[in-house]
Each structure stands twice: as C-alpha cells, then as structure tokens.
Amino acid sequence: PNLSEPTTIGDLLLPEETATAEEAYRTGIHMLQYRDPKGEPAAYFRRALELDETHIPARIALAEIFIHRKEYAAAEEYLLTAEKMLTLWNRRPESGKVFYLLGCCAEAMERYAQAREWYWQAAVLSDTVNCAYTRIAAMDGMLEDWDVMADDAGYAAARFPDNLSARLYEAIADSMLGNSDKAKEKILAVQKTDPLFHPASWAAVQLGLLTEEDFWNGLHSSPTQTCVDLYEEFSSVGMESWDEALLKACIRRQKADAIVYFLLGRTPETPVGRTFPFRLCEKKALERMKDNADARYLLGCLLYNDRQYPDAVRLWKTVDTPEA
Fold first, then answer.
1. What is the pLDDT of residue 324?
2. What is the pLDDT at residue 240?
3. Residue 204 has pLDDT above 60, yes or no
4. From CA 228, how far away is CA 304, in angstroms rounded?
5. CA torsion, points 23, 29, 30, 36, in degrees to nearest 10?
6. What is the pLDDT of residues 87-111, one digit of tens each?
7. C-alpha distances in angstroms, 101 versus 123, 204, 282?
C-alpha cells in the first residue's frame, strides 16, 4: 500500500496564481474542509477579495476565520461590509448567516444589547432561526431580562424540541423568576431526553434535584474540561453564581487543573494539565492573570493555536520553563 503522506496541495494553485475570485474562494473552502494544518485558507479568501471586493462568500468566510481566531473586531469589519452589500435592496436576504455572525462578534466583545439586535435579524430567516433564538435568550439573561428570556427560550424550545440549550435556558429563566417548580420540571425533562447533557446536570444540582456527589460520579470526561465547558455555557447567560459554585467544587474535590483557578482569578495550586486552552473565556481569564508565569505560558499556547505566532513567542520569552 502507498503510505505516503496525504496532502491537499497537489495540483492546487497558489493564491497568487488563481485567476478569478471564485477559483480562489473554492480553493480556500477546499482547504478549510480538508483541515490541513499546512494550508492557509485565509490567503485564498484574501486573494478572492483582491480580484473582486464584492465577492460576499469570500468576505464571510474570511470573517469566520477571524472569529475562530478570536479577532472579533477584524471579523466585524468584514461582516459589516458584507451586510451592506447583502441588504442593498432587501433587509431579508436568503440567509441569516451574516446577521448571526455579527451577533457572535458583538457578544464576544461584550456588547450584549447590540448582539441581541443582530440575533433578532437572524431569527427571521429560516436557516438561522433556531441558533439565533437560542442566543437571543442567552443575551436576555446577560441583560437580566429574565421574563423576556423565559418567553424567547420557550419559543425556541417549543419550535425546536431537540434544542436542549433552549430548554435549559427556559428553566434558568423560570428559576430566576422564582418559578422553581417549573424550572425543576423542565430540567428533569431535559435529563430524561439526554442524561449526558452536563449543563442540565449542574442545573439540577443548583436546583436541589441532584447531589454534587452524583454529579461528579456521573462524569466520564475530564473534570476540568467539563467544568470549563459548563463555565462558558452558564457565563454566556449571566449565571455567574452557578459558575463560581462549579469551579470551587472542582477545586474542593481536587479535580482542577490550573485553568480552573485562573477562571476564578486565583493563583493555581495545581499543574497546568495536559489540555491547552482554546476557549474565549479562557483567553479573557489568562489575560487578567498575566502577572503569573503559567498564565502567560498558557495564553501563548492559545495564541499559537489561533495562529497569532508573534504574540505567542513574545509571551513565551517571558517564561523561564522548558515548555516555553
């Protein structure tokens, strides 16, 4: 058998060799789908825009890459131009993707009211209605509009019963409005649908339906990584008290890697662990703790993963460890 390394490069043209915007765009999409670490799809999307600055798919694809790399201001700039082109004649284009992505950028930059407005524009279009309504409910929570959150999450949950996040958010809103019996009923229903949906399990702990012992015993994944996932989930709907309780419980049970301490704004008492950070909440926590050498090391790893190589190297140079 041929055991040679597979490659996406082959006979593909380099970005500067592509003759049309569509050719450059399609090559970039191919590289994205293949996930070859040697390829740089963004170079092809930039080339597409050099050849035709009105090529909206390339503009949106490039913005998505910036979003994945947490460069939200750059992504927003590309998306706003795309949105103006798409809505030149009609505020209701065939897809709500550009509105949804603009909502994601605004949310990441903590402009929650603006994010909600963008999500509302995405919610009236069929391809983004489900995800947009879910994020609308999340922004309601961030803005402490609990009654509105109950309505918006309830609509999403009723229209899309498989949307467990929407059903969870509806229960959270009920609990914040003092309707604990309704909240408990909805959490139990979500757990029945998917016993491995950990956000519902931690919600059950907070509502007195499940003991902490049963929660931790039910985990079959990394406790730290599960905690960070749940932290990001609950912090995105304004439930900081649930986050704090979860992280402190992880430390108390001696299951926490360093990132759990950083999320709480504390100096770690455990090693950095074997999983590198990649989430936005981790980046924000590490940036707040840059006086700590482990935080700088981990932040450098996160930036390296986001292809921000010079920034990663600058951080690593300040850390006197073999890893850095």
1. 66
2. 96
3. yes
4. 20
5. 130
6. 999 989 999 999 999 999 999 999 9
7. 12, 31, 21
**Nearest C-alpha neighbor of 312 from the set 323, 322, 298:** 298
Query: Count of CB atoms within 10 A of residue 317's CB?
Result: 11
Whether 7 shows a pLDDT value over 60: the answer reads no
Query: Which residues have C-beta within 8 Å of that of residue 53, sequence separation ≥ 6?
Result: none
Q: pTM value?
A: 0.93
Cβ atoms < 10 Å from Cβ of 101: 24
DSSP-derived letter for residue 94 is S
3-state secondary structure of 221: coil
Q: Is the dihedral of CA 228, 234, 236, 240 positive or negative?
A: negative
Please name which of 84, 124, 87, 121 lies closest in space to residue 104, comparing C-alpha atoms.
121
Which residue, chain included where needed, has tokens 């006197």? 320
Close Cβ partners of 105 (under 8 Å, ≥ 6 residues apart)? 67, 72, 73, 75, 76, 79
Token digits of residue 38 = 């040697």
Are the CB atoms for 281 and 289 separated by under 8 Å? no
Model confidence at 1, in pLDDT bands (50, 70, 90)? very low
